[in-house]
Amino acid sequence: MADKFLPATKWPDGLSTLAGGGGLKVRLVLPLLPLRRRLLLSGIIVLSAVLGYSQTKPQEFKTPGSYQSVSTQRAFLNQYCVVCHNERAKTAGLMLDKMDVAHVGDNAEVWEKVVRKLRAGMMPPASAKRPDRTTAETFTVSLETELDRSAAGKLNLGSSGVHRLNRTEYANAVRDLLALEVDVTSLLPADDSSFGFDNMASSLGVSSALLEAYLSAASKISRLAIGDTTSSPSQKTYIAPADLSQNEHIDGLPFGTRGGMLIHHNFPADGEYLFQVALLRGTSEELFGRVSKEEKIELSIDGVRTRLFDIDTEEKNRTRVDNITQPMEVRVSVPAGLHSIGAAFVKRNYVEVEDVFSSTYLRSSISVLDVSRTAVPHVSSVTIGGPFRVTGVSDTASRRQIFSCHPASADSETQCAEQIISTLTRRAFRRPATAEDLEALMGFYREGRAKGSFDNGIELALRRILASPEFVFRLEHEPANVKPGAPYRISDVELASRLSFFLWSSIPDDELLRLASQGKLKDPAVLEAQVRRLLADPRSSQLVSNFAGQWLYLRNLQSITPALEEFPGFDDNLRQAFRRETELFFESIIREDHSVIDLLTADYTFVNDRLAQHYDIPNVYGSQFRRVTLGDNPRRGLLGQGSILMVTSLPTRTSPVARGKWILENILGAPPPKPPANVPPLKESASRNIEALSLRKRMEEHRTNPACAGCHRIMDPIGFSLENFDAVGKWRTKDGFSAIDASGELTDGTKVDGPATLRQGLMRYSDQFVRTMTEKLLTYALGRGLQYDDMPVVRGIVRGAAGEKYRFSSVVLGIVKSAPFQMRTRARSVRESAGIN
Fold first, then answer.
1. What is the DSSP code string of 79-131?
2. Helix (H) or strand (E) holding 305
3. 329 vs 189: CA distance, rounded Å
4. CA–CA separation, 300 vs 256, rounded Å?
5. Higher-confidence residue: 252 or 3?
6. For 68-105, what is each residue's pLDDT tens digit?
7. What are phi and psi of 736, to 5 degrees?
8. What is the C-alpha separation between 266 and 689, in angstroms, rounded?
9. C-alpha distances in angstroms, 237 versus 234, 276, 436, 581?
10. By CB neighbour count within 10 A (0-12 exposed, 13-18 middle, 19+ buried), where does 739 fall?
11. Residues 110, 118: contact at Cβ < 8 Å?
């Protein structure tokens, strides 16, 4: 009676030991229950345990030789450090006068903090007596050498054996499994973040509500993938961004059009669908942009014109064609599957009045505007409803991906179903399908087949696969022959999953799974070849959107709305151009395998006409992005890009504090501590006296607060060197009536006076930038925050990459070959962790 049970599931031993099971395998068998309850219970059971982190012997780490004697190190500390960091002063809670330099491993956490400050040039402070660069470097290397040597037997190999897919990974897994793009934001709640990323195992918790969301998502996705001729009509409305200027062509829409919206919509079945296009209006129903005459809106499906709406916005013709006080609509037959829907204005040969629609013109307040300030109407929304008069389901990309066979007769249905389900299970579970897997899933198939067609049976089995813990979670099973607390190498199929989720944020493909199933990923040459193949694949663009998008704060762009009165030229088109520039720039580092240092120094970027105009770069035409050479332009590298400059600013002005903090954290790897809770914010221009003061002078007054001074003395001078860029990244020489003063200094006291000298000064710390990026990338790859005992591994990766001139691939390969990426520690039971025999 296999159809009455869920598949037997062997959970990692660590789960049962934490529950007091002593490492016993658990066979999950649930009695016959309603489908939704069976799926829900199977999810709840797997989520009841979390694997902890352990320390164990590393696999291959090596350290260089010693550079300074203990007495020389003590002399360095006494001369440059102890004056502040002693038992009496206790500056920053650090006391180095009695610390044992001969046994740094005994206080590794403290010494790693010292190394971090030294590497960032923050200690000794610029105002104190400082050693020459060579002396400081020798001392720092000596500390690192001893720390690495002392850590040789106890590196942190911890990695949770239960790791839920985040929302992005789930969507990508569905895409690669079923050739189906889904709007995961409408299916699952947003994920929490920690350590700067949303793929941290410790933050990806579960709840009954989340499990219900996964079950609902599995049901909707399986029906959409197979096709649903019984789908009831429904509708979905897509709303244009409130600050989108629609005066120019939008990428993806037909040439010869301007503005409008481009939508990617999944149609569940072949049938008729109702399309409604609404124009932007105020609360009093006045049409936005009514001074423009005789507009035409083109509705297209997959780039092919479906309908051309005529509109006349003059008052005397207000009741003319299509009654524009109501949404324009048309009913069209559309085959099942994913299609691109465009609604855009046909571009005329002239524009009577410049469009100045901007972000603060919110829909709720449009009625108070003089709507004639914009020359062109704007598409407000597109609504898609249906299906009506369903005729069937076409051979969509999803169906071609799923149905590897089609039964010729009723007698061949079971064999074909087993083939389909076996293939889907292997890809979804990221391992070979077991007999138990197939037995249980075929039970779901038979249940669906008994109630409907062959397709219904496959759909129900697919729904079970998508709701399975083996799909929703990355599960790593602990071998029975390894003692608790001992290190072991994860299996090849588990390594394949770690690799694909690191580089693709998705499941392994067939080639990677085949090699893993054959045990060939153990071969270093095979593993390296696969890393290079995955990096070359278009799916590695997920490293840009997910890793760089969070590390560089690009995801924050969407939530920032600069003040219209200060930046009237800003709109959503420019915001999207900022994001796309940095994504293309970072992707070029990956694709062309540049040195990661080029992120700070590259003499090129990517612009379209809108961004080029903003940057004062001549001779760039059209909405397509293209690579341009910058030469000596101050915009070289990340620090000259609008995305970075905007996410480190306030809506009304620049923020030297935020820009300095961003550099400390993301380039020098030495983030300042959180500000005290009782510190008042910087006074803005609430009076004429304050308004007359430059931002620099107002911040100098702010630093008179002793609670602020310590950190702001470091952050602010760095941030001031970028003051020539305003809050939306446009170059300027004045701030109001005051000339820009871009003078500042780095943590070591190096004087800078603008972006160019800032970049030159930071290049003295290029090795530290590589360490910082490596830390961030290793955090992202492991799905956990790094601790002080991970630093020896970081240094080993950086040393290995140095021989390859810090090429991006060398850093990635160093991570993939590292012990924490390939190994784990066998979890201890509760009794063993407590020292109970």
1. HHTTTTSSTTT-GGG---SS--GGGGGGGHHHHHHHHHHHHTT-SS-TTS---
2. strand 304-311
3. 32
4. 13
5. 252
6. 788 888 888 888 888 888 888 778 788 888 888 888 88
7. 70, -120
8. 58
9. 10, 9, 43, 29
10. exposed
11. no
Phi-psi map region of 471: left, alpha, beta (phi>0 left; psi -120 to 50 alpha) = alpha
Angle at CA of residue 217, ends 214 and 218, nearest 5°: 85
- Please name the amino acid found at residue 664: L
Is 794 exposed, middle or buried, given 0-12, 13-18 or 19+ CB atoms closer than 10 A? buried
Percent of the chain past pLDDT 90, that is, above it, reads 59
CATH number of 234-392: 2.60.120.260
Q: Classify residue 821 as left (phi > 0), alpha (psi -120 to 50) or beta.
A: alpha
Count Cα atoms within 13 angstroms, Cβ side, for 55.
13
Residues 6+ apart with CB under 8 A from 74: 101
Contacts of 544 (CB under 8 A, 6+ apart): 583, 586, 587, 590
CA 768 to chain centre: 23
Listed in sequence order, the DSSP H helices in 703-807 are 706-720, 755-762, 766-782, 791-802
CA angle 630, 636, 638 (to 5 degrees): 140
Give the span between the Cα atoms of 214 and 200, in whole angstroms.
Answer: 19
Least confident range from 44-53, 385-394, 571-580: namely 44-53
For residue range 644-672, list pLDDT tens digits in order.
999 999 999 999 999 999 999 999 998 88
Position 239 scores a pLDDT of 92
Query: Cα(589)–Cα(351) distance, rounded to whole angstroms?
Result: 40
Contact 401, 458 (CB under 8 A): no
Q: How far apart are CA 817 and CA 810, in angstroms?
A: 10
Q: What angle do CA 185, 187, 191 make, to 5 degrees?
A: 55
Distance of alpha carbon 694 from alpha carbon 673, whole angstroms = 27
HEC profile of 541-581: HHHHHHHHHHHCCHHHHHHCCCCCCCCCCCCHHHHHHHHHH
Residue 140 in contact with residue 74, Cβ under 8 Å? no
Q: Name the strand (E) or helix (H) holding 593.
A: none
What is the residue extent of each domain of the chain? 1-49+162-227+412-475, 70-150, 234-392, 559-765
Q: How far is the CA of 315 from the CAs of 288, 290, 322, 324, 825, in angstroms?
A: 12, 8, 15, 11, 75
Residue 284 CA: distances (Å) to CA of 315, 357, 757? 15, 18, 54
Would you call 271 helix, strand, or coil by DSSP? strand
Mean pLDDT of 325-340: 88
| pTM, full prediction | 0.85
From 152, 176, 129, select the one nearest 63 (Cα to Cα). 152
The residues facing 300 across adjacent strands are: 305, 342
Q: What is the pLDDT of residues 390-431, one digit of tens each?
A: 999 999 999 999 999 999 999 999 999 999 999 999 999 999
Instruction: State the pLDDT at residue 28.
Output: 37
Q: Cβ(727)–Cβ(650) under 8 Å? A: yes
Q: Please give the structure tokens belonging to residue 146.
A: 């001893």
Do residues 64 and 145 touch, judged by C-beta distance below 8 A? yes
459 and 222 in contact (C-beta within 8 Å)? Answer: yes
What is the band of 574 on the pLDDT scale with cuts at 50, 70, 90? very high
Beta strand spans in 670-746 (E): 734-735, 738-739, 744-745
Among 20-24, 349-353, 570-574, 807-811, the range with the most confident prediction by mean pLDDT is: 807-811
Rounded mean pLDDT, 105-129? 87
**Per-residue pLDDT at 478 exceeds 50:** yes
Q: H-type helices in 262-412, by residue range?
A: 397-402
The amino acid at 298? E
Tell me: cis bond preceding 377? Omega within 30 of 0 counts: no
Looking at residue 163, its pLDDT comes to 92
Question: For residue 569, what are the contacts with CB-CB under 8 A and spacing of at least 6?
Answer: 358, 614, 728
- How many Å separate Cα 268 from the centre of its chain? 29
Structure confidence at residue 320 (pLDDT)? 43
